[in-house]
Amino acid sequence: MVCRQLEHVILGYLSHVWDKNDWLYKGQHGFRPGYSCESKVLTVCQDTADSLDEGVCIDAITIGFSKAFNLVPHDRLLTKLAASGMDSRVVVWVREFPVGHTQRVRVGGQLSKEVKVTSGVPQGSVLGPLMFLVYVNDIWRNIDLCIGFFTDDCVIWRKIINENDCSQTFLIYLFLRFACFSYRWFTTMHCKFNLSMYDQEPLVIGRRGCTGRDINKEMLAADNRC
Questions:
Q1: Percent of the chain having pLDDT more than 90?
Q2: HSE toward the beta carbon, residue 83, CA cutoff 13 A
Q3: Regarding beta strands 153-160 and 203-205, do their DSSP bridges make them parallel or antiparallel, or are they unpaired?
């Protein structure tokens, strides 16, 4: 109980610092006061409506990270926390929260050897979800796309201004730019996108001429190239 109360104190401090510095990505709608799955949907719908009013269409895809909460490497997480503007003493305290754990499994009456846990954020805790938000917070940088997050599930979309934007090649490029972030930060933990989410057509909203393309195979090939 005392530990959980202290987590709330740290959470309040972090929220204050990041709000003051405008540090958290505005497109992240998960585990934040005033944000929700509904606010994410409203944001996407409003941007879509504005684009339709402008006479342009939108291409969009939905993807998510597979086993994301379990595969956040602690060393990289701490690097990002230290760069977020928080006091170094708080970084030291937070470091003790996910680091230093071991795990083992029981099969029948036999216990395995203990193994050091080097990845993952504590689920069911106050700070655990926030740590994941920190880890994916800079995913939007240097990517000329609109990204709406609800924790580890996201919608990626972009206005289609000309015929080149409307091409199949562009959609693959759009996906590849996003996928490379995943492999830059998650590859050592073998984290990939949830491939079951590819069993869908890209969502195309707007004028005729920008019709749906069957690019699932090309997207999977791009995913494997990162």
A1: 10
A2: 10
A3: unpaired
Judge residue 55's burial from the number of C-beta atoms within 10 Å of its C-beta, 0-12 exposed, 13-18 middle, 19 or more buried: exposed
CB 23 within 8 A of CB 30: no
Average pLDDT for 141-146? 73
Phi, psi (deg, nearest 5) at residue 169: -60, -40
Question: Which parts of 47-123 are beta strand (E)?
Answer: 57-64, 102-103, 106-107, 110-111, 115-116
| Longest pairwise C-alpha distance within the chain | 67
pTM: 0.72
Mean pLDDT over 163-170 rounds to 59
- Among residues 97, 86, 94, which one has the least CA distance to residue 24? 86
CA distance 24 to 168: 32
What pLDDT is attached to residue 107?
93
β-pair type (153-160, 57-64): antiparallel
DSSP assignment, residue 139? Answer: G
